[in-house]
Amino acid sequence: GKSVMLTDLPRPSLINAFMAADLFVFASNVEYSPLVLFESAAAGTPFLTVPVGNAEEIAQWTGAGVVCPAERDAKGYTRVDPNELAKFMSRLAKDEVLRKRLGVSGKQSWQRKFTWEKISGEYEKIFLQLMSGRVHKT
Fold this sequence. Notes:
The protein is mainly alpha-helical. Helix content is about 55%, strand content about 10%. The protein has helices at about 10-20, 35-40, 55-60, 80-95, 95-115, 115-130; strands at about 25, 45-50, 65, 70, 80. The chain has a three-stranded parallel β-sheet with strand order 1-2-3, with helices on both faces. The radius of gyration is 18 Å and the shape is globular. The mean pLDDT is about 95.
């Protein structure tokens, strides 16, 4: 009884969708590092997520998100109670001030630390340190 909708939006349309949204909800069952949360922050859109991959860290680093508690099953999959997620969604939908604060914080954090220019600069520093012998193997 489930429906699946597949989309392959062109990048500009995807960016516009993030920027037009009031809230991005991400309730994945399994992740490593959900980059989509950084995209939400970059758009200035607050997000609601579950503790999957390093989503909790991303929420903390960006200040853009709220984490809804969820359990992990025996296989390591995150399983959120739909009623609990709906409560969090409802609270955020009703709290425009909080959504605005999260959105602004996320956009500012992304601009300060998480643009590809900033990230590539950090990688460059590491590579230059390695080449000059200033980084030691442990």
